[in-house]
Amino acid sequence: ACHMEGAQVCSNCPGRARAQLRTSRKMAYLRLSTAVLCTLVAKSLAECSKAQWTQAYSPGACHMEGATAVVKCLGKSGSKCGTRMESSSYVGIGLHTMTIKAAPGPGVVSTFYMSTNGGVYEKSCTQPWVELDFEIMGNQVGAETKIWTNMLQGTCQENWAWITVPFDVSADYHTYAFIITAGSISWMVDGVAYRTVATDSFPDVRTAAQSGLFREFISVWGKSSAEAGEGIPAFRNALGVLDSNTNVFPLIAYFQGPSP
Fold it and tell me: Which pLDDT value is given to residue 27?
């Protein structure tokens, strides 16, 4: 007694059947609208890209809570652990800060760094770049925490050193800063300079500083025992592996910057 012709209800359908079809169409539209809205809300919650920062990958690993970027290591493999964000502007001489509550446990790193090459370690060591690092390893946290600092220049030439701070960097927020001058780089935590390197012997570092060639980066990343390690042996040994991390996942790091 009733059939559909395209999107129209035929004229010989009983009134009750037409009403049921209209109701069905309204419900279908409502479900579609709700699904679209949920997708848009989920996307907005999942991404940390803003005018000043661009998220490089894994949008589901980061969301904003007010001015805080909440970055998650979702599982015990590198592909499930963290993301990277980069600033949209270039900087040089001056004070550059980031406030961080680091992710805990073996195999995971919370980072704040400055780089001239897009923020990726150039493993072939054929293209020169300059990079300044705070690498906050969850495996080193405790009542005192060792933090890996580095100045890479040339082609993979490392100038690394541990600094030790008198607190657990995963228990609360602390402010990490680079002070870049025409002749030196300093690594500061909560206003205290723990390391200073004169750059007289590093012309590429001086050029990057004076010409404003750095971009700022933050990231969380990790490695399992089944994955190739990153960096030199001393770094890999200090990092540990996600397999050994007994904390509840997701592991979370929090970042508060002057313009996140």
Answer: 61
Radius of gyration of the chain (CA): 25
pTM for the whole structure: 0.82
Residues 199 and 209: beta-carbon distance below 8 Å: yes
Would you mind telling me the total number of residues written for the chain in this entry? 260
Residue segments in the chain with a per-residue pLDDT below the cut of 50:
1-10, 34-46, 259-260
Contact between residue 149 and residue 164 where contact means Cβ atoms under 8 Å apart: no
Cα separation, 219 vs 61, whole angstroms: 11
pLDDT score at 37: 42
Distance CA 223, CA 240 (A): 8
Strand ranges, E, within 104-213: 108-115, 131-137, 145-152, 161-165, 174-180, 184-189, 192-198
